[in-house]
Specification:
By secondary structure, this protein is α+β, with helices and mostly antiparallel strands. The protein has helices at 2-22, 120-123, 161-165, 242-279; strands spanning 28-35, 38-44, 51-58, 64-65, 76-78, 90-97, 112-114, 130-137, 140-146, 149-154, 157-160, 170-177, 184-188, 192-195, 204-211, 228-230. The protein is elongated and about 120 Å long.
Length: 282
């Protein structure tokens, strides 16, 4: 009889826990959002007074709580400083907790939601580099690239993507001749790259992007920089666009109209003066 009562108590306890869990708003639709190694885990949930604690683990290691994301009301957590070393697959655990903690209650009975694995080194998006282009001679230029900074700070220094990727970081430089639809790509190991064998006297436009060939193909390339165009050394009239031509024609017509108007007025004044002199009495 005592054994039966014990079984009934266990069943009732399990039913109570299950019913409680069913009424707790779980974290859903977990999503990693990472740009330049600033990595945030986001989720959605129903409005409630419950709290959320974020833990993380990599490659089967023990779970650790993120110290900045314990019993929080927000639905996102910045894990940038936690995901070290960078080249590991991390999984996040979002646990729902009650607003008021009953220390006699086992919080593990509250629901957990787990994210897909995420590797910052291989998957974090990389923003656009900045470039300048200097003409070296008629057929070559020097492309100078400035790396974007990351969300990682070490010993008071904010690291650049070069500091993180080191020799894995390369650059893809894309360029085309003005008026042409064909583009050429060059891969450079250095942030200072010479592009040669350009057609003398022609203008060219350049773009560059970070390129990490050791990554999966979908995340190998960062965002493209803004275009930087250099004029050619040929006939300047060849470089003028439609708007400039319209302005030049308007100015020429205006000058022509002024010259004609002044000429007509001068001729009219001369005729009037000559007519007055002829009609004067001798």
């Amino acid at each position: 009889m005592a054994s039966l009562k014990h079984v009934l108590c266990l069943c009732l306890s399990a039913w109570t826990i299950t019913a409680a869990e069913d009424n707790v708003p779980k974290a859903e639709k977990l999503k990693w959002d990472s740009l330049d190694f600033k990595t945030i885990i986001k989720w959605t949930t129903e409005d409630s007074d419950h709290k959320y604690t974020v833990s993380f683990s990599s490659d089967g290691d023990d779970w650790r709580e993120s110290q900045d994301c314990i019993r929080m009301s927000d639905s996102e957590c910045d894990l940038t400083g936690d995901l070290v070393p960078y080249d590991r697959a991390y999984t996040a655990d979002i646990q729902t907790e009650p607003e008021i903690v009953n220390y006699d209650e086992d919080l593990e009975n509250y629901p957990h939601t787990y994210s897909d694995p995420f590797n910052p080194y291989r998957e974090s998006n990389i923003s656009a580099v900045n470039i300048t282009v200097e003409a070296m001679d008629e057929s070559s230029v020097m492309v100078n690239i400035t790396d974007p900074l990351t969300g990682i700070h070490t010993r008071g220094k904010q690291l650049s993507i070069r500091d993180v990727f080191r020799n894995d970081l390369k650059y893809k430089i894309s360029y085309y001749k003005s008026g042409s639809t064909g583009k050429r790509d060059v891969i450079s190991d250095s942030s200072t790259a010479e592009v040669s064998k350009l057609d003398a006297g022609e203008s060219y436009c350049f773009m560059a992007a970070a390129f990490i060939p050791s990554r999966p193909k979908r995340s190998q390339q960062g965002a493209w920089s803004q275009e930087w165009c250099i004029p050619g050394g040929g006939n300047i009239l060849h470089e003028l666009n439609l708007g400039v031509w319209v302005a030049i024609i308007f100015i020429l017509l205006t000058v022509f109209f002024i010259i004609v108007t002044v000429t007509v007025l001068c001729c009219k004044c001369c005729r009037q003066r000559n007519s007055t002199q002829l009609s004067a009495p001798v």
